Amino acid sequence: EILDAKGLHILPGAIDVHVHFRDPGYPNKEDWESGTAAAAFGGVTTVFDMPNTIPPTGNAEILAAKHKIAAEKAHVDFGLYGLLGEDTIDNVPDLVKGGVIGFKLYMGNTFGKIPSPSTGAMLEAFEVVAETGKRISLHAETNTIMERRQTRLTQAGRHDPLAHIASRPAVVAVEAVSRACILSEWTGARIHILHISSADELRPLREAKARGVDVTGETCPQYLFLSTDDYDRFAGVIRVNPPVREKENQEPIWSALADGTVDMIATDHAPHTPEEKTRNDIWAVDCGFPGVETQMPAMLTEVNAGRMSISDYVRWSAFNPARTWGLYPRKGAIQVGSDADIALVDLGHAWTIDDAKIQSRSKISPWHGRKVKGLPIHTIVRGRFVMRDRTLVPGTRGHGRSVHTIQEMPAPDVRNADKTMKAVTSSHRSAENAA
Ligand code: NCD
Ligand code: ZN
Ligand code: ZN
């Protein structure tokens, strides 16, 4: 079957290492079918799902059950995080045997009432995971600081959206990032800092990297594109943990992506229902919004605007995530044939994001009404179209596989993968020359 890809760019499918697909637990917000359909429409061929589902993914039995649900419904490939909490340290070896992509540790409370471990428990957890070679992804916000702030603000009668930010000033993240890096250095555990939201966090991250700590970092489109200036416009919808911050934070985070301090883009796709998001309660726990479907268009808009090259985008969206979690070159590179894991995008397609039309069950986000340029037209996961001509391909429910089963398959030829990386770069250059 020949596909006419004239005018389209071929990119490695994006790997979104931070999504919340809510299954099992909250099917009214999202499930594996709707979440991975959203991914397919967004040019995302692999997602890593967070463990704050019900029950939290904290032991091998629960993990196996979740693998089964995901394998039945997923249109794209996936990895599952294991929950690393005070009560689950002993389950680490079994979770690794069960095929977790890595671990997630919540240093601060967010959605799902997952208690954050003490520093002592964190040290133990890091020691245990270090033995396994797996990476620990951290929600790096210090609970005790946030709780004190929130109590004080509530007592002072503050219930405006900006109080949500005031309860989580950047120092909450700076302290947590620094502590996580110190524990990583001490124990040798590999770590990943999730959702970097502020310029302030970049210093401890840079310093840790310079000392040789095995730490990677991600930021999300909300911290690159949204700021406190958007609070009035989006009210409760924009509430997310960590919060979007003052606009001055955006440029330093872009620069940190460019210089490699921040390694990748993930979305923290965190669907909630419209009723939950529009409820007039800024202390409600329903923080976050969908994003897996709109990340690529939002970022490609910046490629079009000349802020970065296509190869920068590929590095942040696919190559670095694949390398960090040992999936390269099976993922994160362009291949043809039965291994193809790619997105074909129309880079010149200008359109406006409309929440009513997104695949995610959570049809409410601060991306609504945003003008973007760039649209995935087809998405191919391991050689099979899952989204074609902006339509979900029938029969691809259940095509998605856990990456731990894919890792066991023989690796494709790295030289070809590198050649195609070069091809992307040079085709981009010729596009730039033509422009
Ligand atoms: C996430 C969620 O809703 O699960 N919410 C959020 O605001 N980011 C949890 C999280 O990533 O911390
Ligand atoms: Zn988080
Ligand atoms: Zn999250």
What tags apply to this protein structure?
disordered C terminus; binds N-carbamoyl-L-aspartate; 17% strand; five-stranded antiparallel beta sheet; alpha/beta; 435 residues; globular; eight-stranded parallel beta sheet; binds zinc ion
Main sheet characteristics: 8 strands, parallel
Which ranges are low-confidence, i.e. pLDDT below 50, for 5 or more consecutive residues? 419-435
- Portion of residues in beta strands equals 15-25%
What string gives the helices and strands in order?
A: EEHEHEHEHEHHHEHEHHHEHHHEEEEHH
Bound molecules: N-carbamoyl-L-aspartate, zinc ion
Rg from alpha-carbon coordinates:
20 Å
Helix share bin: 25-40%
Q: What's the mean pLDDT score?
A: 93
Secondary-structure-derived class: alpha/beta
Write the layout of secondary structure elements.
Blueprint: E1 9-12, E2 14-19, H1 32-41, E3 44-49, H2 60-73, E4 77-83, H3 92-97, E5 102-106, H4 119-132, E6 135-139, H5 143-155, H6 161-166, H7 170-187, E7 190-193, H8 202-210, E8 215-219, H9 221-225, H10 231-234, H11 250-259, E9 264-265, H12 274-278, H13 295-304, H14 310-324, E10 342-352, E11 371-381, E12 384-388, E13 391-392, H15 403-407, H16 414-434
Parallel strand pairs: 2-3, 3-4, 4-5, 5-6, 6-7, 7-8, 8-9
Antiparallel strand pairs: 1-10, 10-11, 11-12, 12-13
Helix pairs in contact: 7-8
Bound molecules: N-carbamoyl-L-aspartate and zinc ion (2 copies).
